[in-house]
What does this fold into?
Amino acid sequence: MIPKASGVSIFGLFILVIFSLGMPMDSAGHAPPPSESVTRQIQAGKKANSLINEKSPYLIQHACNPVQWLPWGDEAFKRAEQQDKPIFLSIGYSTCHWCHVMAHESFENDDVAAFLNEHFIAIKVDREERPDIDQIYMAATQAISGSGGWPMSVFLLPDRRPFYAGTYFPPESGHGRPGFLDLLQQINGIWQGDRARLTGHAEEITHGLLNMASATAAEKPLSEELLHLCFKQASQGFDSDFGGFGPAPKFPRPAIFDQLLRYNAWQKNDQAREMVLFSLKKMARGGMYDQLGGGFHRYSVDGQWRVPHFEKMLYDQGQLASLYFDAFLVGHDPFYRHIGSAILDYVLRDMTDDQGGFYSAEDADSVDEHDRTRHGEGLFYLWQEAEIVRLLGVEAGAIFNFFYGVETEGNALADPMAEFRGKNILYAKYSLAQTAQKFSKSEEGIKNILAMGRKSLFAARQKRPRPHLDDKIITAWNGLMISAMAKGFKVTGDDRYLRAATGSARFLENNLVNRDDKTLFRRHRDGEANFQGQLDDYAFFVQGLLDLYGADFDSHWLELAVDLTKVQIELFHDDTKGAFFDSPSTAQNVLIRMKNDYDGAEPAGNSIVAMNLLRLAQIIDNKEWQQRAEGILSFFAGGLMSQPFARPAMAAAYDLYRQKPRQIIIAGTYGAVDTDQLVKIINTSYLPTTLVLLADKGPGQRFLEKNMPFIEYMTAMDGKATAYVCENFTCKEPVNSAEGLSALLASPGTK
It folds into this structure.
């Protein structure tokens, strides 16, 4: 447990509250690229600071601030030490709404900038480029203030140890909240007059972080009870009215839904299944889902999934698309397949680079289409009732507005933001049946009217100023999207998704894999690959490669996954205490190497590494990798056995670990009709713990035979593609018909 160093103990009664209203853990934007905006500012007479040479859209956004920002690195730390100044570290990302607010209120303020420049060394960090730095100081911020979020505001000694932190600070003090300039003045006063107090707090906080990072494996045996407990904890927090877990704000957390589907596959637990299906339907009918353009906003500020913070993150799209396709396989309702496809179509349309990579995010904020000097959150997505009637006509407009909950005074609940007043967020308030009854029409007729209405509003919306696009290509998040596109192809048969998955994998291999040593870079933008890959970059990319192999059976992806895993073990594994660090052994200027096991907005790297190692251990018959996966689970056993709801992706890895290895080997030619018939049966079945391989008598089979010699003997029967369903490397009677394979998969023990 990290000791909490209260802000009150540092600043007395002056600082009673860290102002974080409306800024949960993940608040997040096609305006002109930041570089174009900076060029215009320079042409208008503004001076650029050191961030002008950076590639990060977030850092470039601040390149013309009067604050003399420096990027994270030796130069900044050297200046802090030589000038005997504390460091002000600001961490955020380019599509973060409250980051924009604090930038406008404080970092563009000449008085604030003058004081900050005189008394501090100011450093800007893009958390998406440097999650290792973000992780350390987020832990410190939560220890100090009791909460965390972005923008993150951290004060450091010149040696990078934190002594005080918070999130957003308003420009002026009031209502018990410290204004940013007042805070700077208070800290400077203590720095000048009582520095020992700050040093003491830095020592206390750093000691707590080190204790957390140096924890040893918990001496607690793992058992299936953790899977039952995970379900129990989920059901206790389940919102039976609107789905999801806990009160507002609500985050999707796809990993918990994934684990509940796995639990249902094992236990045939209808409650686990229905919690997922109900929640996903509620989410997709709410305002958090973009009813016109597809894709999900980051989270809902209310408990009904109605009012989102409007940023769209790639990592959410990847995980949620995969989840909706799984929900279709489990529930057989085409609604879920439609939502999964709509997410992927949104990504292909708006978040895909010409070279194949996937972009990081779209902003919450945009410019008002009627007043280009005004900008605010959600403007791109909001509608007035009269506007819709004008576009669709009186009758169609009335039907559309009824179905989507549009009101004359606006439906965005009681929100203080001016841009929401009188505006509407589209959400499916009524069903087709209710709408048909209201307007005395057939459901099919209502469905057609709504479809034409969505098409018309989408076309009108496309003419509005778009939100800023963060066009960084992040290795980890591309890995998640590769998995989603591969699954989308398997479930729908749409070749566009397979081409997109393959295109991203090739882009990463060509641009973000170091050709000399197979190490990964974290980020690609504007022709430059930079920053050492973190554990989640290796984990999510390897997972994507394994899932891509399951879609196109190209063994090249398996070979690349194996190569990257070898490098990952060398750079990240803790040979002394077990599990994997989140940053590599070669990391520079990192105060502490952390290990994370919380599966939040993104699953923890260790959780996915454990799953990958278990999958790869079967493919290359590597008992050492099986043991390393077991080592991860053992290291985190204490938390996993007591709070699996916080670690559902790791619980899923344990679920795979406890089972005997299961494989389906198809002996046939990829792309042949008979092979495709068998593959289609597999692709339309929910088989979360079953490995599918292709024995094709080509390069793929030769790769597999090196480690799984028995595959050599798996041949087509009677000249037809044949499926071998095996458990613990013992196979059932082979079948070469779709009907026979369906019957085998329906039998117990093949999930």
Summary: Confidence is low (pLDDT under 50) at residues 1-29. Residues 195-213 form the longest helix (19 residues). DSSP finds 29 helices and 19 strands in the chain. The chain has four domains: 7-213, 221-246+278-288+336-353+473-658, 381-461, 660-751.
